[in-house]
Design brief:
Strand content: 5-15%
Largest sheet: 4 strands, mixed
Number of domains: 1
CATH topology: Cytochrome p450
Structural class: alpha+beta
Radius of gyration: 24 Å
Binding site for heme: 446
InterPro entries: Cyt_P450, Cyt_P450_CS, Cyt_P450_E_grp-I, Cyt_P450_sf, Insect_CytP450_Detox
Distance between the termini: 85 Å
Number of helices: 21
Strand order of the largest sheet: 1-2-8-5
Subcellular location: Endoplasmic reticulum membrane; Microsome membrane
Bound molecules: protoporphyrin IX containing FE
CATH architecture: Orthogonal Bundle
Cofactor: heme
GO molecular function, one term: iron ion binding
Number of strands: 10
Oligomer: single chain
Amino acid sequence: MMYTYVALVATACYLFYLYVTRNFSYWKQRHVNGPRPVALFGNLQAVALRRQNIAVVFRDIYKQFPNEKIVGMYRMTTPCLLVRDLDIAKAILIKDFDCFSDRGVSFSERGLSNNLFHADTDIWRVLRNRFTPIFTSTKLKNMVYLMEQSGDRFVEYVRQLCAEGQEPQLHRLIQRYTVATISACAFGLDFDTIADKMHVLQKLDNVIFSPSFIDEVDMMYPGILRKLNIDIFPKDLSKFFDTLVTTVVNQRKGKPTNRRDFMDLILELRQQSEIQGPKRSVEEQQRTLELTDDIIAAQAFVFYAGGYETSASTMSFMMYELARNPDMQERVIQEVDEVMRKYDGKVTFEALNELKYMEQVFDETLRLYPIVDPLQRRAQQDYRIPGTELTVKKGQMVFISAGGIHRDERYYPDPERFDPDRFSPENSSNRHPCAYLPFGAGPRNCIGMRFARVQSKTCLAKFFSAFRVSGAPETLREVRFVPRRFILASEAFKLTITPRKL
Ligand code: HEM
């Protein structure tokens, strides 16, 4: 009896092993080099066990294969491709975009899923077409005064902390500013009036950016969430954004105001009840989308999520690097002082455009710490990878590691060194369009890129007008990334903030 039991368990284990390794000869058969997979986890064991951030894992795999243009990998049990070659990346992201217009992350048809980031092509095209106008220069220009107000309050808050002798956790501190600006610019809300705001924020943050194991299930059975219509976000989150949108719609009595912000655009679109996508040829049938409350809440959600955390992480990495490099910090401060003097202490769109060195420091920060990484696309059809013998099959996922490319010494000599001069106009002019990808590239790049730059530079101009940052040697030795995050964020660290003597 005992032997039968052991034999049964051993057979079951063996069958399970065969099942979870069944695809592992896929890349070998196609003569594509890649890291050796581990049963069940493929090459993402460290990610699935929440030991390492996904961006770091992809970056390491990129580094392991310096002579390959493409690398064959397994996301859990499913084969996928990592592209290392810049011309191939350009073909996928830009030139042959129509073959790769899905990000491959869509899930349910309900709730918050139909947002610009997660949506598949048919819905995405309509949304992108209608929401791009929110981010034009004119719209951004009109929003700078809102950002400036948030910046002033932020500086006051930091001054108060300094007076109390507190050393705040930097990332958490900057989130206060980014949430306030996105609340004001997107929804016309005064964040300071929201009760218990940091608690609400923390709750949202955990839900939005902490991966759940359902992601691994989707990697093993790609598309299963979509097929089963499973919503990956809890009801609480949908409810929060439903309520937010309803509150703002009611405040404005259902009509656009003259703020010309995100909610105004939504209210304009809402009057049409249906929105249309672009028509790219005479034959193409125009896609329309009913503007349901779900669709509205989903866009509110993605602008909110995109608008506060990415910029907050970037700014905290930037302050960390400036604390490590005091000479660069002095250069930033000097530039801020000069520009602020010229504009009578007012942050305007024009003033921000003159903060050239700060822009270089910002770009160099995102080179070393690309927040949303890796980039990903799903093949819409079988596609022959240019310059190779390989055909990617319809439905397969293709990844591009911005972190890997950004630390590749072929494009950035001495890549671990923080050096903003890499982004001087002369040094940037000859760079391959896919050698720098913090905001992705092509028609599906980051829609909020310019908003993020203006939002961050406003905060940084205000901050460095008033303070300097420094850190203890042990803080400044090494950044440690949080493993349990979709996006790149550092483990909590504290910097000393010292008011400048003006
Ligand atoms: C420093 C700040 C930011 C960084 C580093 C960043 C980075 C990125 C990246 C890498 C992508 C994917 C691009 C691709 O696949 O090619 C993306 C997409 C996106 N981002 Fe950002 N982002 C930032 C700020 C923002 C802001 C402020 C917003 C909104 C207000 C935003 C909204 C979005 C949306 C909606 C998408 C999906 C676009 C689409 O699929 O059409 N992001 N972002």
